[in-house]
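tokens incoming
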């Protein structure tokens, strides 16, 4: 139980990619972490791209970055909805500023761009948001997992095993999350 005592927020909004919420949520719980699903405030549950719902534990305006060891941003089209909520963008920005692990997969990089935390960072994400990441000041790399300081990014659901392993290692303190 490498993550016993760790508290992780997973962000949620409608049209999320099911695997990108459920795989990390279950994997991190398996390692002993307390996982909190944090919603935008629009609803007490959100429906994924394939119709699978996820219940919200807390709304973004009710939590603070300092309450978590990590913030996970799944993809699908949910990040485009998430970034419409100042409280969600602020949570991501504050978590990065506080040195918390902030991990985004697939379209999750949109939230990093909206939080204005990508300047000078090396990241990856779904190929269709490459331009958005670059325009936000990042260097885009096409790799399974990119780690730059406390920011961890991956491209797609196929990368989930490596994405979760990298987050677990960073949170467990087994190696520095720095590049």
């Amino acid at each position: 139980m490498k993550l016993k005592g760790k508290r992780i927020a997973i962000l949620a909004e409608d049209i999320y990619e099911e695997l990108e919420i459920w795989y990390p949520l279950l994997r991190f719980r398996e390692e002993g972490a307390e996982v909190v699903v944090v919603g935008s405030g629009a609803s007490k549950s959100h429906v994924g791209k394939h119709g699978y719902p996820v219940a919200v534990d807390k709304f973004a305006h009710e939590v603070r970055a300092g309450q978590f060891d990590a913030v996970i941003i799944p993809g699908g089209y949910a990040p485009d909805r998430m970034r419409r909520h100042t409280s969600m963008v602020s949570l991501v920005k504050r978590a990065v500023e506080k040195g918390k692990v902030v991990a985004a997969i697939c379209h999750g990089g949109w939230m990093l761009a909206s939080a204005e935390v990508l300047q000078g960072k090396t990241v990856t994400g779904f190929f269709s948001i490459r331009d958005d990441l670059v325009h936000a000041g990042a260097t885009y790399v096409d790799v399974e997992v990119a780690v730059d300081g406390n920011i961890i990014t991956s491209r797609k659901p196929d990368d989930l095993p490596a994405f979760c392993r990298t987050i677990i290692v960073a949170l467990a303190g087994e190696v520095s999350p720095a590049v």
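note: The helical segments are 18-30, 78-82, 86-97, 109-114, 130-135, 160-172.
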